[in-house]
Amino acid sequence: MFAGHSILVMLAVAMAGAGICLALTRPRQILATIVAVCAIECALAADIWAVVLRDGSVTAAAEWFYVDAFSAFHLIVLVLVFLLSSIFAGVYFAGEAEAHAFSLPVARRFGALWLGSLSAMMLVLVSNNLGIMWVGMEATTLLSAFLISLHPSRLSLEAMWKYLLICSVGIAFAFIGTIFAAASLQSSGGVEGDALFWTRLNSPEVHLDPTLMKFAFIFILVGYGTKTGLAPIHSWLPDAHSQAPAPVSAMFSGFLLNTALYCIMRFVAPARHVLGGDFVNGLLIFFGTLSIVVAAGFIVFQRDAKRLLAYSSVEHLGIITLGFGLGPLGTFAALFHTLNHSVCKPLAFFAVGRLGQRFGSHDMHVLSGVLRADRLWGLALLGSVLALIGVAPFAIFMSEYQLLRAAIGSGAWLVLVVFLAAGGVVFISALRHLIDMAYGEPHAELAAPHNGAAAVLVVAASLGLLLLLGLWMPGWFLGALGAAAAVLGARP
Amino acid sequence: MPALLETIAAIGLVSCFALLGTSRIGACIRWLSLQGIVIGLVPLLAHDGGFGLRVLLLACGNIALKGVIFPLILLRLRARTDYHREVEPFVGFVASVLFGIVALAVSLWLALALQPALRHAPFLMLEAAIFLVSIGLFIIISRRKALMQVIGYLILENGIFVFAVITVVTTPLLVELGVLLDAFVAVFVMGIAVFHINREFGSIDVDQLTALRG
Amino acid sequence: MTMSATGLHWFLSPLCALLLAPLLPGLINRTKALVAGRRGPPLLQPYRDALKSLRRGAVYGAATSPLFRLGPVVNLAALAASLLVLPFAGIGAPVGFAGDLIVLAGLLALGRFATMLAALDTGSSFEGMGASREAHFAALAEPALLLALATLVRVTGAVSLTPIYAAIGIATWAHTLPTLALVALTFVVLELVENSRIPVDDPNTHLELTMIHEVMVLDHSGPDLAFIQYAAALKLWVLGALFVGLVVPLHGGSLWLDGAAALLGMAGLAVGIGMVEAAMARYRLVHVPQFIVGAATLSAVAFIVYLA
Amino acid sequence: MDVFLVALALLWVGGGIAAVLRARPDAAQIAGQAGAVAGSAVGLAAAIGVLVSGRGETLVAFWPMPGGELNLAIDALSAFFLLPVFGLSLLTGLYGRSYLAGRGNAAAAASWFHLNTLTVAMALVIVAANGLLLLLAWEVMALSSFFLVIADDRQASVRHAAWTYLVAAHLGTSFLLVLFVLLGSAAGTGDFSGYIGVLRGNPALSSAIFLLALIGFGSKAGIVPAHVWLPEAHPVAPSHASALMSGAMIKVGIYGIVRILTMMDAPPAWWGWVLIAAGASSGVLGVLFALAQHDLKRLLAYHSVENIGIILLGIGIGVLGLAHGMTTLAVIGFAAGLLHVLNHSIFKGLLFLGAGAVQHAAHTLELEELGGLLKRMKWTGTCFLIGAAAIVGLPPLNGFVSEFLLFYSGFLGIAGASATVAAAGLIAVVAMGLISGLAAACFAKAFGVVFLGTARSHEAEAAHEVAPPMLAAMAVLALLCVAIGAAAPVVVRSLGVVVAQATGLAAPQVRAALAPVAGGLGNATAIFAVLALAAALLWLVRARRLAIAGAARGPVWGCGFQHPTARMQYTASSFAQPLTTQFRLFIGSRERLVPPAGYFPETASYASDTGDPFLRLLFAPGFRWFSRVVAPLHVLQRGHIHVYVLYLAATLVGLLIWGSLWQ
């Protein structure tokens, strides 16, 4: 199939799926539909990726859609996260307590919003026009808001309101940034009309106004950074992640944050081009490091498992941002880390969510002896958290190693020390909780677990992938990462 | 037509001060709708490119949404939710107005700073845009009621809209419509959220929403 | 294997030790008695005691295992073996090689370890107490011994006992008097500590609570006891020889003269110890460590004095 | 190299099967044991092959990982360090099944997977010739041993110990990360050959790398104060795992230090001093802490710290010799250190297996609960006695040989020309003297209280001899202790090739330097032969006399106590009390003394309890302080949405101001 079309088909399928979910009459059907749609999206995304890797980029609908190696890579991660999360959603909602019964209206709302968010994120990734990209981004906020309070309760509503308001305001700023960017092109006598097109903005022959570009980038960074969860504007993140149903938290950590970061990175190339590396990299390194440190500090005194994972997301997004600021090798490491984190963190949320259902709480003092209570999800929790805190042979160890190479390569000694110190803090405190959760005797007397094939599949696939990438990086994958990094003007 | 533009800018500023000063939500909403209508006219006057179909459509859409539909939604919402209809700010009205004056000065300065970079943006409008944004933020930060925060957000939106219209000569229609759609959905969603909050908490005082900490 | 003594004389030094060692306790006790104004036991009393208990049968406590019987044997064998590296007077050691001083220390430690285990094997609290004290003081005495030897090594530049003692002559004393004197003092202290003489321990007391070495061997009887008594004498001899070789640095070349001088030296040492025992009372146990550590410091000072 | 790979494959297949078959524990245990034994045997053959032939083997293959390459190399040094790894793995494999037989559950079955993985990882660390590969194996090593430590996870103390262990491992690894990344970016490659290229003739970089290595690898080796995880982790792991960890794994840390040293030019003198200081402090403090313990395995763990100190003393003197160009000194120093690596793995493995046997038989390791086991567990007791005598460094066992070398190097330094070297030598000699004296005291206590006297509890009374495979494993190690002691000259001579590589000196030079000391050891062994002869003779005499005069069992003069009870025996605490009180300053043990009062005292008791002072006074307060420091962060997240939006605005304004100032 010709890739240009498959972009359109991809979007169409997602939206159609959202519509169908509203029409279906059985929760099970809806959950099945979600999985099916995500599977199709996977195939399409793979097709697009293949084409992109072959001939550089794919455009469609008269330049409105444009996919290069960078966005194609994110696309793959996106569909992967959604596929796994959708499969898990089936497992999760089947096990919901009566209080949170997964009734038809709830199911419909979930299905529609879920696939709606998917299509919105896809729109962000494939759109060439920065305006449309912004529209998509705002749409993800609005659509995913009600996923948080799928079962309205005081806490979930509080979390949802904070998410909604803070992110909307932030993204409004991002729009100002976008306008500044367009203006910077225009005021330097650029051709009118297509001022908002990234291909145009990024083409080497145009000349941009540095002042405007500078402010543009600041607004973009703060605006989309809010949604990326960069400290100190991450405050909505732990609330939303801790209150949303597990599949939703997984999807948030797994890709929503990365989508926002992706938008920032779209502006990095032209900004570097105009302002030189120091300005942009300096900002990225600063916010990345700050996020790592703040997250480490907060992780020390967490009690709720999902909050802990949320702060860990702040940390890891900080790591990725930091990587993007550390030159070619850093960019490569950041992309690698993106994939690893997006596979690992959802798994952790799955495990905590599922175990939380069985123990009736996410409090880490209540969760105990999970390996005995539920071997499968216990292993998932153990493996994913160990991977998250950077234990080899899991892939995150490798991407952090690459990041260290980048840091030393660019002589960022202070950053190196801070990174390792914060990493140590996270390791110490998270491991303490992990051991007490995973091992020992469960406090509560629980029925024997019944984990279907779907659950096993999710766990095995995620852990397998993490192990594989930690030990073995196929050449073509390496090439793909390299190409993606090259889009940001960096080739390792 | 600079004269008209200046009038619009003036009305915009006045409406902001009114929003800062009034203690009743209903009044706030009405001022907001006035602001919306006036702001909606800007595209028609901003560029002397004449009235294209594009511009017309844009203007009508804005006026319809921000001048009419949003206020109606908000009023309905207020009728449904808010029992005592005071704004109940953290920051008193006088202080708010004082802040407004300061903000005005600052945005003046900023506009001056930006002017050289954005040559063909009418100066007053630029200032008004910045002012609107800052006031929107201030209201979100300083008001207790969820409803007022929505209003603050809309003021912010207005500011950004003005800014977009006067700086970027021509943005593709598709984008404009997309932005409008988003704004609409945003208000819609926020409305539902406020409604839910009111049902759960028995009020829309967001200061009660502090259970999630640390 | 370097024959440090010419011809057939190499076995003389161990022979002297094996034959004459029991004379030392005899001499000590005799001196003590004379100073105290008594006649005291005959010089050969230790021989008699040993032979008598050798002929006796043995009684073993209920708790003991074969290790209890093995202890005295190993102890005596170790001390006997240590004679092979011990230079005596002009007569060098039968076996002299680089590092033999380490072997000497090792053998002493082996004997001590065996004795301690045998004591613990009785399961009685008194033997246990004795073993504990022995372990305590030995742990402090070992560094002292090594320090003293290290100083001699530094002075003579040799790492084997025989050459070390061969190298120490009147001339050496002449220009390193303070160093050697301090080392000699250390050896005296070690002689007293390792053989649990007054002022460290009183072998003739009858209050087990205050004993160190004697209380460890209370339960031994018969041949075991004989071995222990003989081993004690040998230990006196071994450490004494280290001291005497240092303070009687006569290498006239004539075997007999040197030997005679050395024997006289040993006798003198024994008499001296007797005097000390007669003159002094034992320290309270808590002061013994300070006594030993003091000795170690003497050697450290000696070393530093020489280094500077 | 193929043989080596086959060994790893066998180990891992066996472990894998064990992990898969966890549903059927017995089958799983058989598979795991088979893999461990067979694989280790093959691996041992490979290592010995390299040592004998003297020809190193290498394997370079592509590894699709940026900065990494599948680059393996077995040279003499690696082969030498492979000996304890595979040797102990073989014996622990032999030992393990009977030991785990008590708890034939799924977890026990799975523990084989971790055990074999640990062996594989250690072997890979030792043969890796690429920084990233080494790091990966290093981490796997830490992880698999972590799972072994937490095997008995129902007790909170075990979980805490496992946590301490993995934290220590991770903090150490982060230094190694910096080390290898730094070298890699300087050399532009991850391979050791490249490292050598940049390290030669670059003293500044070399010193930095040396310090990083000392901390990173040293934390695994257990240098004070990074030793705190040892006494936590080793006691709680299954005993054969403790044996493997204490006997082999901490040596991998030593290997790392030595390997890094081989990559550099002749080291500056201060490295030697640093190593000697670390060695002396670790040695003395380790044995002092050990004295105060009354859990057998904790005590043994602290002795590992002590022996690591001894090893470092040797290496330190060797480095000092290299720095001053004193070849003989360098050679003998390194020889002492390396030989002690081997020896310690033998007798410490033996002692841990013995402790396991005791636990298996008497269900406790609390010294005050044990006693009189020698009569019930003759063979275990004998093996343990040999191990104890060896670790104390008594002739004629293997411990004495390496300590002889160390003393000898010390005396050489003292006899030598340079005054500074003489001072270093004196420090080494005195420290060693103190260490061996204290060690003797400690093991007199340990062996005496556990195996001698009478039982202090019913469990100890009911103890029985353990299964033949366990005995076999211990017997082999005991025999090795004796054999190395007896064949000392041969052993020392054959160290030449390893030492040559460690020091970078020419083989003939090394052989020339080792020849005299080997000769000396020859004489020593002769003397020990005489000793054995004399002992035998005396035994005969004694037997004859008693045959005539008769030997009776019965009450002896127990100072008037005609009916001694078990409770009258000297306890471990009391035995060590004089020394622990004397060194209270260093040990910081908390003593509880209830002195007898009045003429007819009812009760009087003495007990001492020594938690690790570094853990108690340094690390734990540090952690508490840190969590106190970060606690105020709460304030940033109080739940007020207005404040959050304010953060947003503030960030924006701040950035805008900064941006407008930025040029």
Word description of this protein:
The complex is a heterotetramer of chains A (492), B (214), C (308) and D (663). Chain A has 492 residues and is an all-alpha fold. Chain A has helices spanning 3-23, 27-55, 69-94, 104-126, 130-148, 154-187, 198-202, 210-228, 236-243, 246-275, 277-299, 305-324, 327-359, 370-373, 375-388, 395-409, 413-438, 453-471, 475-487, and strands at residues 57-60, 65-68. A two-stranded antiparallel sheet of chain A has the order 1-2. With 214 residues, chain B is mainly alpha-helical. Chain B has seven helices and no strands. In chain B, helix 1 packs antiparallel against helix 2. Chain D has 663 residues and is mostly helical. Among the domains of chain D are: 1-211, no CATH class; 613-661. In chain D, strand 1 (57-61) and strand 2 (70-74) form a beta hairpin. Strand 1 of chain C pairs parallel with strand 3 of chain D.
What is the chain-wise order of helices and strands of chain A?
A: HHEEHHHHHHHHHHHHHHHHH
User: Count of helical segments of chain D?
Assistant: 26
Q: Which two chains form the greatest contact, residue counts included?
A: C-D, 82 and 89 residues
The helix-and-strand class of chain D reads mainly alpha
Q: Which residues of chain D sit in consecutive blocks of at least 5 with pLDDT less than 50?
A: none
* Count of distinct strands of chain A: 2
The quaternary structure here is heterotetramer
Within the largest sheet of chain D, what's the order of strands?
1-2
Through-space gap between termini of chain D: 60 Å
Biggest pleated-sheet summary of chain D:
2 strands, antiparallel
- Computed Rg of chain D: 27 Å
How does the overall form of chain D come out from the CA principal axes? globular
Distance between the termini of chain A: 32 Å
The chain-level mean pLDDT of chain A equals 92
Strand composition percent of chain D: under 5%
Portion in helices of chain A: over 70%
Helix content of chain D: over 70%
Q: Strand tally of chain D, please?
A: 5
Tags for this model:
heterotetramer, A: 492 residues, mainly alpha, two-stranded antiparallel sheet, 77% helix, 2% strand, globular, D: 663 residues, two-stranded antiparallel ribbon, 5 strands
